[in-house]
Amino acid sequence: MRPVTDASTPLLPSETPTATTLEELQRNLEAVRQRIDAAARRVGRDPSEVRLLPVSKTVPEERLRLVYEAGVRFLGENKVQEAQRKAEAMADLTDLKWSVIGHLQRNKARYVARFAAEFQALHTVRLAETLERRLEIEDRTLDVFVQVNSSGEESKFGLPPEEVPAFVKELPSFPRLRVKGLMTLALFSSDMERVRACFVRMRELQERLRQEAPDGLSFDELSMGMSGDFEVAIEEGATVVRVGQSIFGARELPDSHYWPTQGSQAGA
Predict the structure, then answer these.
(1) How far apart are CA 59 and CA 247, in angstroms?
(2) Using CA atoms, how far apart are residues 12 and 249, in angstroms rounded to an integer?
(3) N or C: which terminus of the chain has fewer CB atoms within 10 Å of its end residue's CB?
C-alpha cells in the first residue's frame, strides 16, 4: 500500500484540480504514465504492454483539443451520444479515435457502428446482433471487449465470469465484431485487496479463454483499472487502463451518473 503521508503520493481522483491548460494536461499525463511504468516494473512487466485510455466524459471540446496537442490519439467515452457529438465536432483531427466504454442500449447501436473504433461493453447476444447489422450497413468493423461483472454486484452490467465461455462461443457468428479481450469495472472500495480480487478473477478468466475460445477470437487484452485502482490492475495483468480524473481533474457529478445501474437499462 502507498503511504498516505508521503508527499509524493498522487492525489485521489476527487482531489485532482481541473486541468485547463496544455501544460497542466501534459503534467498530469506524464504523472499517470510514470505510475503505469512503476506498476508494470514492480511485477516484471514491460510498461509498453499497457495502453492508457484517457476517459473524456464531460470534458469540453477545447480541453480535448489540448490533450490531443499533448499527444493523445484515443479517447474513451461512456455515453454514446456525447461521444458522437464530440467525434463530429473534432472530425478535422482525422487520426483521433473513440472508444465507447459505457453501457449501450440497442437502439443507439447505430451511433457506435457509425464512428467508434472500439466498444468495451459487449455482454449480450442481442446487442452483438444489432451491432453486426448496423456495421454491415456502414461497411465497417469494430473492435470489441466482452464486459464481465467481476465483483458480482447486481448494480453492475456485464456477464458473470462463469457465463463468459458460453457467450464467446456465439461471437464467431458476428464477423464484423473483432473480439480483442475482456473489460470490467472492479468493486468500488478503498480496500485494495478486495479490488485486487476482481482483477485476479479477470486474469484467470483470460487464461481460460485463451485455451478454450473459438478460433479467430483474441483475448490478449484486459481493460481494467481506473483512476483509483489502475496500478493494482496493472499488477494483475491489465493491458488497457481507463483514466479520466487523474488526467482531466475531478468531475462535478458522481460515477453513478456515468456508470448506470441495471435498473436503467430500458431499451437494452
Answers:
(1) 11
(2) 10
(3) N
